[in-house]
Each structure stands twice: as C-alpha cells, then as structure tokens.
Amino acid sequence: MKIPNTIWTLLIGIVLTLVSLWYGQNHGLLPTAASDEAVLIDGLFSAMLTVSIGIFLIVEGILIYAAIKYRRRAGDNEDGPPIEGNVPLEILWTAIPAVIVIGISVYSFDVYNQIGGLSLHGGHEMPMMQEAMSKPGTAIAATLSDTPITLAQANSGIGTSEDKAGTDQPLVVDVAALQYAWLFTYPDTGIMTGELHVPIGREVQLNMKANDVIHAFWVPEFRLKQDVIPGRETQVRFTTRKIGQYPLICAELCGPYHGAMQSQVVVESQEAFDSWMQSQQVASKEDLQKAVAINPQELSADEFLAPYTHNMGIHSEILDQVTRN
Ligand SMILES: [Cu+2]
C-alpha cells in the first residue's frame, strides 16, 4: 500500500508540532525564575523557542531531504527542470512569517508592559537630563561620602520596619553604583549595605544612580537588566517569588575591576528580613559611635572607610585603588 503525500505531510506536521511544543517547555536553558517578571519573560522566551525549533526542523529537514533525494547520480550531467514562479507558495511563505512576527511583537509588548517597562523611568523619557546638564561635573564629583548615615537617621530607624511590613506599597531601595561596588540605602531606616536584602513576595522598587560611569544592574534569576547612569535616575521593579541568594552582576564594562563588581540579592522571609534589618541598624549605630569616638583626621583614607566598607563586599584591593585616585 502506498501512503499518499498529503498523509505524509500531515503526519510530519503533527510530529514537528509535538516535538517543538515539548522542547519549548523542557529546554532547561534558563536559570531559576526567582521573580514574577522572570516567569512572564520565560513564557515569551519559550514561545519564541517553540516557533524557532519548528522552523529550524522544517528548513533543515527539507534541506537534508533535498540534498539526498536530488543528489547528482553517476553519469548524469543534465540540469534539473527550470521552474519559475509559484504565486500561492510565495504568498504562503510571506504570510506565515508576517503572522509569526506580528504575534511575537504583540506578545513581547504585552510582557514589557506587564513588567512595568512603560510606566517606569529609564525607558524612553529623560526626566533628569536637564538637571544633569545644568550641573556639569556632577558625574565625576560624587564619591562615597555622598550617602553618609547620620546618627539621627540611624537612631530614628530602629524599630520602624515592622510598621511597613505587609503593605501594598513597594519596598523602595536607593541604589548607588560606583566603581566597583553596589551600595543599597533603605530610606525608611537609613541603613546602607553592600548586598540587597528583600522580603519574599513584596514588590521592590530600586531607584538607581551611578556615581561615576555607566553601570548596569543585572540579576539573571530575575531576568532583569537596567543601565545605571550618572546624572539620571533609572528604576527597576520586581516581585520575588523564591527564597535564595542570587548573584547581582554589573553588566556594563565600567573599568579595569568591572569583573569584580558583583554582589548578591538575598531573598528571605519577612521575619528573616526584619531581623536582618534590626542587626544592620545595631551594627551601623556601633560603627557610628566608634567613628564619632575617634578623630577622622588622624586616620588614613582606608582606615576611615573601613567601618563602611566592612559589610559591603568591597575587595580591599579595589578600595585601595579607589582611595589612591
Ligand atoms: Cu560597573
């Protein structure tokens, strides 16, 4: 019995669709999805991969089939029949990619909108451009001393964080990127740290500024990457969904120690976050009392900065380099 070509085409089509759908859902190419945004972005990635796998298999399959079936036989020096023009086929291979591209565009635009791409700064508008232009030199003038913790801030902060817990308001953290470290300031408490701690399930908003050159905030497990620019605030928002520690990497070549500009995001339970915040407040108070007790004039730059950098993950050689300049 000879199976007709239409049946073959149908069978191959079904198999290709199933293989593409299966691989699109089971590719395992991405790290853990630790934020709600990551789930949306992974959905888009998997959809695009599914389509791509289908196209890849069709194109490569036809190519290999044609190369074998229509190969040159021994003693055959004739050319194939000249074929020109096939209007239905041409319409089909224009229409199918057009539909795919439009579909992906609409889907990706929707994902971009859902993760806040259209409502946050740092997208297209330039709210701080004028400020930056009216103050020439701000980009290079800013230093570590830009964000000191005052004694009053440290005192007033103690015991206030539990009032904010469980609200719908996002947790706001100010981020300063500088060669070659990340500094996180919690405006509610005045706490400044070198690694970002956030409670699970609560929306977090980062207001980011660079002190010197362009850096980029990148957490692969959150699928988020945002440039951090001198003289212009950029923002990023996310909601975490998995407890853990995730690497934070600078994704913009920012100088010779760019590769060391790494920190981490610690996603923890609300209780763990609160007790961490408490311990930070106690520690920063002690540091301040120590700093107040000694005369800063008598210290070298390294010694003066030591209490601040102690917990920030700044490598001593980088500190050395920074303070020498
Ligand atoms: Cu950097």
Topology, please?
Blueprint: H1 5-26, H2 36-69, H3 87-114, H4 129-134, H5 138-141, H6 151-157, H7 161-164, E1 171-178, E2 181-186, E3 191-193, E4 196-199, E5 203-210, E6 215-219, E7 224-228, E8 234-239, E9 244-250, E10 262-268, H8 270-293, H9 301-309, H10 316-324
Parallel strand pairs: 1-5, 4-10
Antiparallel strand pairs: 1-2, 2-3, 5-8, 6-7, 6-9, 9-10
The structure holds copper (II) ion (CU).
The site of copper (II) ion has 6 residues, from loops.
Give a short overview.
It is built from ten helices and ten strands. It has 325 residues and is an alpha+beta fold. It is elongated.
Q: What this model shows, in words?
A:
It is built from 10 helices and 10 strands. It is 45% helix and 18% strand. The model is unreliable at 122-165 (pLDDT under 50). The longest helix is centred in the N-terminal third of the chain and has 34 residues, at 36-69. The chain has a 5-stranded mixed sheet. It folds into 2 domains: 5-69 and 85-114; 140-324, Immunoglobulin-like (Sandwich), CATH 2.60.40. The radius of gyration is 28 Å and the shape is elongated. The chain has helices at residues 5-26, 36-69, 87-114, 129-134, 138-141, 151-157, 161-164, 270-293, 301-309, 316-324; strands at residues 171-178, 181-186, 191-193, 196-199, 203-210, 215-219, 224-228, 234-239, 244-250, 262-268. By secondary structure, the chain is an alpha+beta fold. Strand 1 (171-178) and strand 2 form a beta hairpin.
